Amino acid sequence: MKEEIRDKISLKAKENLSYTKDLLKNNSDIVFREFYIGKLNAALIYVDGMADKRLLDDYVLETLMVIGPDITEVEEIKDKILTVSDMREVKKLSEGINAMLSGDTLMFIDGLEVGYVIATRSWPARGVSEPSGETVIRGGRDGFTETIRFNTALVRRRIKDTRLKVESKTLGVRSKSDLAIMYIDDIVNKKILEELFSRLEKIDIDAVLDSGYVEQFIEDNKWSFFPQVQSTERPDVVAAALYEGRITILVDNSPFALIVPATMSAMFQSPDDYYQRWIYGSIIRLVRFLSIFAALMLPALYVAVTSFHPAIIPTKLAYFIAASREGVPFPAFVEALIMEFSLAFLIESTARLPKAIGSTVGIVGGLIIGQAAVTAGIVSPIMIIIVSVTAITSFTTPNYEMASAFRILRFILIIFAAVIGLYGIMIGIILILIHLVRLKSFNIPYLAPVVNPDIDDFKDSFMRFPIRFYKKRPGFMNTGDKVRQK
Questions:
Q1: Does residue 391 sit in helix, strand or coil?
Q2: CB neighbours (10 Å) of residue 169?
Q3: In what order do the strands lie in the sheet containing 87-90?
Q4: What are the residues whose beta carbons fall under 8 Å from the beta carbon of 408, sequence distance 6 or more?
Q5: What are the sequence ranges of the domains in the chain?
Q6: At what angle do helices 278-307 and 422-438 cross, to 10 degrees?
Q7: In sequence order, which ranges of 311-354 are alpha helices (DSSP H)?
Q8: 470 and 459 in contact (C-beta within 8 Å)?
Q9: Residue pair 129/143 in contact by the 8 Å Cβ criterion
Q10: Coil vs helix vs strand at 117
């Protein structure tokens, strides 16, 4: 049950200090510092390890205890004595305590029915480094960290516009995690912005430990395999999305930013597409779409053709497949499932292992075990080739969640193919397309711009036209300022 903190701040600093000590008892990391400003009693409360002690010593305690006794009015302390740049008044004790638990320092002074929150947040933080999951050949090497203010600064560095807005919000009854909602005021679709705030207001949970929590609460269809919120570690991707009229959510303690609304075409775009010349970006993007189609279809086609439709295979190839499968005790369906599960196990174990031995396990699993399985007659060589091509093509997708969705759908298509062959694959593809056509992200069609064709939007979908052709922002976003290039 939520513990209620009183809101009233007493005129006596000792009373506020006593109440706070009782509220936060048995916490060895919380420091209560009582001192005097002349004859006035005062108190500081902060969390050891999260507050900057040097700032408190040099600019708060020393200033107040040396110069403070000369003041005539207690209200002058804030405006004439304290030499800190960032501080504010709080009229509710609960608000001050929440700020203190976030790394700021809470101060009470006799005679004031308000508290002072001094910005002293300073905790160990990971430095800005290159994102491990979204590497690029050309482009910035900086990525988000777990500190929300570092992340907003990385975006600000790329958008020096007074119309860029950063609104703060707190989620989590107990964790009180900080969120930053970023958008460009004259570009963003106001209806989408209102819908986002409405969904965030409905979140009522003990703790928000990562942006993944928020993503699962605000997505449109929780049963869909496809990600309806784009996640990224790159500030340049966030900046590009903001310029298109999208909205970004940054969560403290998470290096992943969320971008809404999301479309399927956006999931296949990489910063490399825009930093290189348009012809290279277009070809790479087409390769990406063909690769994911091959990753989805190849194992299912193998099962369907070998089990139901061998007549459509060229004669020599059919003889080769039959010879390679001689001695394999399992049907093609079971053979495909064995290799697909083995691939899934290998990918998952490699991802969880330390980097020093992860590559070694990949080599052992991919080469030695695969060759041993063929030698033992458990699977055929052609199946090894198909699974290898499937693995390679699935890694071309820039978005991990989208690649995972197609991995699950690949299993489903294999089952359909094992039941009624090519007809099963066709039924599976039709069902997937029906779902995609109906799927939306914040009321924006997931397949935009395909489902609402606009010739301008197609310039940045399956291919990338030269940048000089991008005169307007995406039409399906219905943005405020629609022109981005004259």
A1: helix
A2: 15
A3: 30-37, 40-47, 105-109, 115-118, 87-90
A4: 225
A5: 13-118, 148-262, 276-444
A6: 140
A7: 315-324, 332-352
A8: yes
A9: yes
A10: strand
10-residue mean pLDDT profile of the chain (486 residues): values are 74 93 92 91 93 90 83 80 89 92 93 92 82 84 91 94 94 92 95 96 94 95 94 95 96 95 92 89 91 92 89 82 80 87 81 70 68 78 87 87 92 94 94 95 91 80 87 89 87
Answer yes or no: are the C-beta atoms of 158 and 235 closer than 8 Å: yes
* Burial class for 477, CB neighbours closer than 10 Å (0-12, 13-18, 19+): buried
Distance separating alpha carbons of residues 59 and 368, to the nearest angstrom: 64
- Can you read off the two tokens belonging to residue 249? 């959510």
- How far is Cα 78 from Cα 13, in angstroms, rounded to an integer? 16
**How large is the C-alpha radius of gyration of the chain?**
29
Query: Angle at CA 150, nearest 5°, toward 144 and 151?
Result: 45
Candidates 156, 160, 176; CA nearest to 168 is 176
Nearest to 482, CA basis, from 184, 48, 152: 184
What is each CA distance from 121 to 86, 105, 231, 268, in whole angstroms?
Answer: 11, 8, 27, 38
DSSP 205: -
Look at residue 1 in the predicted model and tell me its pLDDT. 41
pLDDT tens sequence across 341-380: 888 888 787 777 777 666 666 666 666 777 777 777 788 8
Nearest one of 185, 386, 399 to 304, comparing CA atoms? 386
Nearest to 409 by CA among 396, 392, 390, 381: 390
Element (DSSP H or E) covering residue 101: helix 93-101
Exposed/middle/buried for residue 25 (C-beta within 10 Å: 0-12, 13-18, 19+): exposed
Could you give the residue ranges of the DSSP H alpha helices within 202-312? Answer: 211-218, 235-243, 264-267, 272-275, 278-307
The C-alpha atoms of residue 127 and residue 151 are separated, in whole angstroms, by 11
Q: How many CB atoms lie within 10 A of CB 269?
A: 21
CB-facing half-sphere around the CA of 389: CA atoms within 13 A: 16
Number of C-alpha atoms within 13 angstroms, CB side, residue 265?
20
Structure tokens at 89: 């008044």
